[in-house]
Amino acid sequence: MKFICDDNLGKLAKWLRTLGYDTLFYPDIEDTELVSNALREERIILSRDTELKRFKSVEKKLFLLSGNQPLGQLKEVLKRFNLKPQEKNLFTRCLLCNQLLIPVPKKEVESRVPPFVFKTQENFIYCSKCNKFYWAGTHLKNLKRTMVEEKVMEKAS
Ligand SMILES: [Zn+2]
Fold it and tell me: Is residue 106 a part of any domain in this protein?
């Protein structure tokens, strides 16, 4: 299942990417562009703009969110499409550009990340589009806890 978020849903897009869902987001996208992209790439449109209902071609691809809190919106999407986020899919996509991240062996990143990070982290992932390295750190642990507490994800066994 792939999504495209309307402008002003940037935070929701980041949440979806964090959980590993293929999600496009462009700030200031025109409605017509949003619609043609959804049709071309078979994406579900996530929006709060009821005006989009005028595009009959995407009637079945449009999901209008009712809440305005990103985490609440995330739950609306998961519920509507009956999605069950998996721990193994966390941080598999770049939060900035949606590209799938590639695991990189530690020895290859020594000159590319801060020394402290290199010393304390074992797992590195890379976005080839942004030329950016990510590492889990405490962030991933906190994120997992939040996802479990918010009942977005089940506790890993
Ligand atoms: Zn990226």
Answer: yes
